[in-house]
Amino acid sequence: MADNQLVSLSKSFAVTIINITEELWDRRKATGIINQLLRSGTGIGANIHEGNYAASRADFINKFQIALKECYETEYWLEIMHEAAVLTDEEFQNLNVRCSKIRRMLIASVNTARNRAD
Q: Is CATH 1.10.540.10 the right assignment for the domain spanning 2-115?
């Protein structure tokens, strides 16, 4: 159940990231780092999806850890863009809350997978 929610949340987040980066291109704001946000923000869900089809528990953990790193990177770019007034307070809060929720779920999933007995 949690995996399905994580997949759904990360996919929805990726779509929002795609839409916001398109809007930022139109506003001609932060064009140098838009691709960074796009790659990390969509990479979260891609790695979760890949992890759900992992060949082993170690592979699952690895993919989810990569997704977690992408989450941290996305949070960084969101903070930078907010502090540079590229993202409005509302845009930042919406994206940051969603990214943080995904991050917490990834941490819980990785910890659960690590603690499971074979």
A: no
